[in-house]
Every structure is written in structure tokens, then in C-alpha cells.
Amino acid sequence: MAYLGLLASVLTLICVAQSSESATLSLRLVHRFSDEARVSAPGGAGWRWPSRGSMAYYRTLLRSDLQRQKRRLGVRYQHQALFPDEGSDTFSLGNDFGWLHYTWIDIGTPNVSFLVALDSGSDLLWVPCDCIQCAPLSGYHSSLDKDLGMYNPAESSTSRHLPCSHELCQLGSSCKADKQPCPYNISYYTENTYSSGLLVEDKMYLTSSDGRGSIQASVIIGCGRRQGGGYLEGMAPDGLLGLGLGEISVPSFLSKVGLVKNSFSICFKEDNSGHIYFGDEGVPSQKSTTFVPLDGKYIYYIIEVDRCCVGHKCLEQSGLQALFDTGSSFTFVPQDIYKRVSLEFDKQVNASRADFDGYPFEYCYKSSPVAMPDIPNLTLTFAVNKSFLVVDPIFNAYGEQGQLAGFCLALQPTTDILATIGQNFMTGYHIAFDRENLKLGWSRSDCGDLGSSTKVPLTPEKQPNRPENPLPTTEQQSSPGHAVSPAEAGRAPTGHNSSAVSQKEPFLHVCLLLLLMTQFTVFSVG
């Protein structure tokens, strides 16, 4: 039986200053989960508070203590980086699979393979399971070397349904009993696109980058019994791997148990291949910018762009907030900024406008393999003189015989105030999502294996003769990836608040030091 010793709720410290006369300071300490603290909290009396003595209360205290120990002592994680047991490779199959990037993962015992889309705009890992309404899982042999998988929790010896009483069951209040399996229902940005079913805990198989063999990690999986919208029309037919900030995401589980650092990286090559690594924080020489909160919470990987630049001209009042979303194939910016960037691009490019049937992009131009014009650079600038040069801001257009006929500015407008940086603008970069420090890092890369990737020039090379790839449909041009906020699969955004202490008299510093020294928690196990 475990006993938890807590610091007394009220403590009076007497501090004596060695000066001409003595000074006494009395400080009242209030426990952060007390009724008094509840009233003063940001959410006031309505703030969700763990009941004193409950399991949630002690779990919260323990989680806080472990985080303090990590900050104080530094954590030795078990592995430098992990990747799916089937390999770190990612790839895009173009129009056949909705222009998203995918990787193979294995889950369950015995293990079953799934081809899941990579989505940093949502949290939950879900796969087709005990299907009522799912996409067809056969007929893809022209694109794949094996069949897509179907998950059945009853056939996995390591699976267990998540009860409605679990802290990550967001829809638990709709359950009739605490032990009932927890339902989930996520609506995504694309119209009528959703996944629903039950939450299950099971094993996911991973491999260590340091060659220490296979690892089985417990993760929460959405048993996706019913899908709709884009998920029935080619996007993610075999499931989706949510990589968001929520506690239910795979990166959260891997870092919480100390397997790897709380980060992951993705690299997309220009030939539609790439890599994913859990625990990778990027390289020391990378540039970085901090994530910014949405409505005061860190829910998505959102960055603050100071200005958008075309060629050598940076447009005034072109700042925006943008979601870095691997689940979006293309890039979207608010209408007013889209128009200004497009007009400046049109002014600088030395080519005649063209209209290609079936292409959804507005600013398209004629060209040929022997007469490809210089393409103006497109750059996003950030604070502290940092910038993100888009490697290839165009989408090539091909004729009926597969010959290069022209190109389009691969940028689209959105009515949202939030821009979306999709996979096409991430191409050619090693992108590190540092969740622990709430930073996005990027460095130009050829996307080789972790530790062997070579640096490449910042200036993108011209590639007029890309292999032919079918056009995205109009629906696939819309951003499919991130879940509508709030997602209903148990998102628990991490808050990062800092506090500062005003500099007062010298004796006050002594007292504050003593207060810090008294913060402790004692555990005994009997």
C-alpha cells in the first residue's frame, strides 16, 4: 500500500535580515488543489479540479513530480529514436490514396499490418475495425505489394477496450456504465469526413534506431467501425496515425513511458518518399520557431509568420498564423494574403499564363522541358531573422503524352483566418516537431536515414521533368487532415505557463529560496 506525504497546507517562514534591524516576513502557502486555489484559478470555480483523495488527484500529483524530476535531473530515455517495425519509410501514392503520405505499422498480437496516413493535425491513431461502414481494403495491388489490414480486437491477445471511466475517454459522460467501452467520434476539416467507433488499448511494434531490437509499446487505438466522407473515397482507407499534441497520440504515449523524448521528425523527399522518427529533435544546426497557442491552448502545431516574401520582395502586412499539418496535401493561406502573394509571383515570373483543364490552381503558366523559366522563391520569415524557403512552390502540369506542358503556383486560398502549411511546402526539409520545448525545427535534407542525412543547398534545384502523376481531385485539394476543434477523441492539450518573481528587498530573496527548498513530496511503499 502506498502512502503519500504532503507538505502542510500552511507554512510560516520567519526570515531575519542581517541589517540594522530585524525584519519578519510571513507567507501563507496554499495547496494548488485546495478550495482556496480553485477560486483563484484561471477558470475560477468552474475549473475542472481533481477531488482530493481520488485516483485522479494522486495521478496528477505523481505526474507533476515526475515532470519536476525530469527538469531537475534530466531524463535518460531508453532510445535515441524509434520508428515503425516495418521501417521508417514514408511514401505518397498520389491520386490513388488522396495525395497523403503513409507508413506501414504493426499492431495487435499476433501483429497485423496497416498502411496509415500521417497526420500532425489530429491526435488519434485509428484503423478499420469490425466495420459497419469502411473503405474497401482490396483492389490496390497496382500501388501496393500487399493487402490492407483489418483490426479485430477479439483476435488480439493484448487488446482491451478502454472503459468509459478512463481519463482519456472524452465521451465518457454519454456512457450508461463506467465499464462500458469508450466511444469516439472525430469530425475532420473536409466536409462530412469523420471516423467513429470504440477506443482500444493494444501493442504497437517499433524498432530502435540504435539497433537494440523491437519494442512493444502500449498505445490507444480507435477501432474505426464507421468512416465517412473522404475516408470512403481514397483518403486513408487503412487508417490514420494522429501525431498531434493530445495525450492520446502515439508520440505522447512513447514519451510518457520514457521510451523516447517528447518529439518526432518527418522528412518528405521530392520523389514522394521520406522518413518518420519518434524521439528525434532534429539537428543542432537547424532553424526553429516557437509554436503559438490557439485560444490560449497548445492544441495544434501553429507557428507565427511575420511576412511572406516572393523573390526578394517581402510583402508588408502579410503576417499570418499557420498550422503545420502533414495531413494536408497542399498549402492554404487566407484569401487576402493569397491574392497578394499570387499577384507578386505573377509579376516576377517570366512566363505566359495558361489554363490547364482539371487543375484547381489559379495561377498557371506555359513551359516546356527545354524552356523552363526561373521560378521566384517563396519564403516565410519569422522573428529573430529566421526564414523558411519553400523548396518547390509549384505543381507541374503535363500533357496527354506525359510531356511537361507548364506549371502552377501550388498555393490555394482559404476562408479561414488560420493558414495551413501542407506536405508540398514541407518537401525537402527535415521537420522536427519538438513537443517538449514547443518548437518547430527545420533543416534542408536529402531525407536519408537518421544520422546519415546529408546537408543540401538552400537554393532549390529546378526539376522540370518530374514523373507524371495523376491530378488531385477538387475534394482532395481541400485540407483533409486536422480534426475540428475540439476533437472528441480525448485531446488534452499541454499548457506551458511561466511565472516571474519581482525583485524586492534582499531578505525577500532569502525567503523565496527557503520556500523553493521546502517543495518536496515523500512516497513510501509497504
UniProtKB/TrEMBL annotation:
It comes from the Eukaryota. Keywords: Aspartyl protease, Cell membrane, Glycoprotein, Hydrolase, Lipoprotein, Membrane, Protease, Signal. It is a lipid-anchor. Its main location: membrane. Residues 453-500 are annotated as: Disordered. Residues 471-480 have a biased composition (Polar residues). Residues 1-22 form the signal peptide. One of its GO terms (biological process) is proteolysis. Residues 101-443 form the Peptidase A1 domain. CDD domains: pepsin_like. It is found in: Cell membrane. GO terms for cellular component: plasma membrane. The active site is at D119, D325. It holds the Pfam family TAXi_C. GO terms for molecular function: aspartic-type endopeptidase activity. Belongs to the peptidase A1 family. This is Eukaryotic aspartyl protease family protein. It comes from Rhynchospora pubera. The lineage of its organism: Eukaryota, Viridiplantae, Streptophyta, Embryophyta, Tracheophyta.
